[in-house]
Structure formats: C-alpha cells, structure tokens
Automatic annotation (TrEMBL):
Keywords: Hydrolase. This is Haloacetate dehalogenase. InterPro entries: AB_hydrolase_1, AB_hydrolase_fold, Epox_hydrolase-like. Pfam families: Abhydrolase_1.
Length: 304
C-alpha cells in the first residue's frame, strides 16, 4: 500500500504526541513562513489537500493534519459523541499546534474539518488570523434545513443513530458505503475526480472498525440534540461572531444547489456577517474536483 508521500512532494511526515493520542500530519513550506493549518472532511484524510498543498506551501508553512479518528491519527473510544465534540477537538488541535511551535495560524477546513475550524475560531479567536470554510453551513443551520425538508442529507441522522447500528451496517461493506458517498456528492457522480493514490489512503482507514465508530461519533456529536448544535445555539443567542477575515467557498453542484439561501448568506446572518464568498463550479469535493479554482481562491485570501 502506498504511504501517500508522493502526493506531497517536499513535505515531511510528522507524528505528534498530543491530547487523545498521536496525530499525523504532513508539513511543508519554509519554517519561517506563516503557518497554515488544513483540516480535511468526511470520509477522507489529509490526502484530500494534495492538489493544493504544494502551491500553498510556496508562501506558507502548511500543516495538513489528520483529524482525530480519521486517516492515521488516533481514534480513541467515545460514547454518545462526547469525545468528538468539535469544541473538544478544537482544544486538542490548539494543543497540537503548540507542540509544533505555532501559537497563531491561518486555518482552512473542508466539511467536518470546517466544523472544527469555525468552532476553534469562535472559541479561541486570538489563535486564528484568517479562516476559510469549504462547503458547509453552520451545524445549527444544517439541522434547520434537515428538519424543514424530510430526506435531506440522510447520512446525518443515519450516522448519528445510537451505536452500534450504523457501525454494523457500514461494516458489512465499508468501501461500498463510503465510495457511494464520494460518487453521490461529486459533481460527476463517479470517482473520476479522485487520485487513486488518495483513494488508497482513504480505503484502509474507513475500513477499520474503530475508525468507523469514530466517524459515527463525529456525527453523534453533531446530531440534532448534540453538543455541536448546542454550542452554536448558545453562541447565536449571545450574538458571538467571528472577528477575523472569513472566506466561504461553496460548491454550485452540491451545497448551493437548489437551496433557498446560499452558504454565504447563511454565514453572514449567523457567525460571519462580513464574510467574503467564492462560488466553485464543482460537487462537494472542490479541492479534488476543481483544484485550480479552489487553489486560486485560497491563495488570494491567505495572501492578505
């Protein structure tokens, strides 16, 4: 099995001992450059950034991190989503970044990584200089949409069901389940956008029982009555917003398709009233489906 190093030329692999066990990252760029942390989404790992990271490393010290429970980072046990609440993961990532010498950094997240990213930026705004959110709306808004439209994003309530129901069902054919989601959410309804070397990294991770459980725990934390939504509600009630520059990237063929409110408008009415936005002509996996447009948008934003 390939280790994925050829996807990140000039990057070094790094194991970091931190809260909740060991974390894995690939790091590249000048050591004296501004740090830029990249957080991947579900059901992937750091490899999703391989078409963007080398270019971003020309100006930044890029850290592409595997989230807890994903890729090669530790997947500690958890019940009822407690270990995978985004507030808790954000605190752990702050500690991990301190371990490698970065107190302040710029931050980009896709999908579940973006949920960790905005929670980190809300809870520790002094840490984040600039924030890019790829293809999500706030968790509370996401549940408003699901509750208003029966059958929308059925993987959210499915993965959040009590253990071990979803774990058992997925475990019967992990490749079939997760590759089905990649196809369904991509703009072409197939796997053509994904480098086979990246898929070679995704498949072994999502086929491990403890990692399937970790991904379900991630969604249990983000359930309709879970801690992630509760944190959103509390912040909205207090009127808290993100003080740093925020960029919202939204896919035309997934997140913003047939929606009454764009992702950018959702962020502007909630946590990021001054956010800028870029619409990307792709499905959900814009870093792999539309790397040129996504790279250009992130390069402009993080150059500021």
């Amino acid at each position: 099995m390939a280790d994925g190093g050829d996807l990140f030329p000039g990057f070094d692999p790094l194991w970091i001992d931190g809260p909740a066990g060991r974390w894995f990252a690939r790091i590249g760029g000048r050591e004296d450059a501004t740090p830029l942390l990249l957080l991947h989404g579900f059901p992937q790992c750091h490899a999703m950034w391989h078409r963007l990271a080398p270019a971003l490393a020309e100006r930044h010290r890029v850290i592409a991190l595997d989230l807890k429970g994903y890729g090669w980072s530790a997947a500690p046990d958890s019940e009822n989503g407690e270990g995978y609440a985004k507030r808790r993961i954000a605190e752990e990532i702050v500690a991990v970044m301190e371990r490698i010498g970065h107190i302040h950094f710029r931050l980009a997240g896709h999908d579940r990584g973006a949920r960790v990213a905005y929670r980190l930026a809300l809870d520790a705004p002094g840490r984040v200089e600039r924030l890019a959110l790829l293809d999500i709306v706030p968790t509370h808004v996401q549940w408003e949409r699901i509750e208003a439209q029966a059958g929308m994003n059925p993987h959210w309530p499915f993965l959040a069901k009590p253990a071990p129901e979803p774990e058992r069902e997925i475990g019967r054919d992990p490749d079939g389940y997760f590759e089905g989601l990649l196809r369904q959410w991509s703009g072409r309804d197939d796997l053509s956008a994904f480098d086979e070397r990246a898929l070679t990294l995704y498949r072994p991770a999502w086929g491990v029982p403890e990692r399937i459980h970790a991904m379900c725990e991630d969604y249990r934390a983000g359930s309709a009555d879970g801690p992630d939504r509760a944190a959103d509600r509390a912040d909205l009630a207090e009127g808290r917003t993100l003080p740093m520059p925020v960029l919202v990237l939204a896919s035309r063929r997934y997140l913003d398709k047939d929606k009454p409110e764009t992702a950018l408008d959702a962020w502007r009415r909630t946590f990021a009233p001054k956010a800028d936005g870029v619409s990307i002509d792709s499905g959900h996996f814009m870093a792999e489906e539309a790397p040129d447009a996504t790279r250009a948008a992130l390069t402009r934003f993080f150059a500021g």
